[in-house]
Write a sequence for this structure.
């Protein structure tokens, strides 16, 4: 597609106004929304207000007057519509690793007669590491790969809606129905889908996700945990922290869980990180998710078309079968990505050979896609990646 046509598409884009609400350095095409979202313009002021006006002036009183204590629930309610959930069904706090641990452990206790955990061994490492850790801690559990295709004796199935490596997407309603029909509990990880498409985990038993990728909550932004209302009275938080108690300020000697989603709060909210997420959610309150998904599919399809056969495509070619990223394989993928970044096109690399490009529809345009593909083709054609400096591995790839 010619660049002029891409500029025309940008001019007609119903989401184009959102681009100005992000801080984007001049000369950079930022295709890493699937790793760390760009900075919303409102974030700095929201964090400043938390630090100077709330902490600085209200001091400890801000737990009441600024709503700090309720943040895990209030932010959960704001985030809930983005995953198809309702009020009182989502709690925000901790990290993705911790909420995965909470969700899977709670599911295991709800199915004590079953001793199998099904997961994708190729899933994001923290998901699989947490599953292996739980199995080792409790003993007697088998961790079975999804490829075995069996759920009949499983206690819990943990899967990512969108594969972090290739962007391949699971059919959430179909898989959820199959798992639950087999008597197992379904846990979805939506880290690589929330904020890039319409997500609906309402039929699942549990769901987890992060807020620093497409949602743009910022580095270290807290994760979230969805618990289906049918489990609120029976699911057990295996990390029974003070803030999940039914009456934390009664300071009772024994633990008595809250009757609702609050039982999955563990400890003190990360107030400064939550301020960044709060600012980002101001944007998402106004974003039409159907338009986000439509643009996501158009952007990724255009990139695949423009790159052509220059690299081996690792992502599904059909737009509906992938998330908002495109991945390619090349044995020198790391060096190619370093060369691209030096020329203003930012993607990332995942071992052993994957180049990943994440397209955040709120701030990436069609002309960006055209220019990124042209730069990639130039790096490949001229073999610019062969420069020796690109062979030196950085700590974060």
């Amino acid at each position: 597609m010619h660049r002029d046509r891409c500029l025309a598409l940008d001019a007609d884009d119903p989401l184009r106004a959102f681009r100005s609400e992000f801080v984007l350095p001049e000369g950079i095409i930022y295709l890493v929304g699937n790793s760390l979202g760009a900075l919303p313009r409102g974030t700095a002021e929201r964090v400043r207000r938390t630090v100077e006006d709330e902490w600085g002036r209200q001091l400890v009183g801000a737990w009441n007057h600024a709503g700090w204590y309720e943040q895990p629930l209030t932010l959960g309610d704001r985030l809930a519509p983005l995953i198809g959930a309702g009020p009182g069904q989502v709690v925000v706090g901790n990290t993705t690793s911790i909420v995965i641990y909470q969700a899977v452990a709670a599911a295991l206790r709800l199915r004590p007669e079953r001793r199998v955990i099904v997961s994708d061994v190729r899933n994001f490492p923290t998901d699989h590491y947490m599953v292996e850790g739980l199995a080792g801690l409790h003993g007697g559990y088998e961790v079975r790969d999804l490829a075995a295709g069996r759920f009949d004796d499983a206690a819990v199935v943990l899967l990512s809606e969108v594969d972090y490596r290739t962007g391949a997407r699971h059919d959430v309603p179909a898989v959820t129905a199959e798992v639950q029909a087999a008597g197992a509990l379904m846990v979805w990880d939506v880290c690589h889908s929330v904020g890039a498409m319409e997500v609906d985990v309402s039929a699942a038993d549990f769901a987890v996700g992060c807020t620093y990728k497409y949602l743009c909550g910022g580095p270290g932004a807290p994760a979230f945990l969805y618990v289906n209302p049918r489990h609120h009275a029976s699911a057990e938080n295996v990390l029974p922290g003070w803030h999940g108690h039914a009456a934390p300020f009664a300071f009772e000697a024994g633990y008595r869980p809250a009757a609702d989603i609050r039982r999955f709060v563990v400890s003190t909210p990360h107030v400064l990180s939550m301020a960044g997420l709060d600012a980002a959610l101001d944007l998402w309150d106004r974003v039409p998710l159907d338009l986000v998904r439509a643009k996501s599919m158009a952007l990724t399809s255009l990139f695949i078309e423009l790159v052509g056969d220059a690299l081996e495509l690792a992502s599904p070619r059909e737009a509906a079968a992938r998330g908002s990223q495109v991945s390619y394989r090349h044995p020198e993928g790391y060096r190619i990505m370093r060369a691209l970044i030096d020329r203003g096109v930012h993607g990332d690399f995942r071992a052993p050979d994957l180049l990943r490009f994440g397209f955040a529809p709120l701030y990436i345009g069609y002309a960006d896609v055209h220019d990124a593909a042209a730069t990639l083709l130039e790096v490949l054609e001229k073999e610019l990646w062969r420069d020796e400096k690109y062979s030196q591995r950085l700590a974060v790839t």
Q: What stands out?
A: The chain has eleven helices and 15 strands.
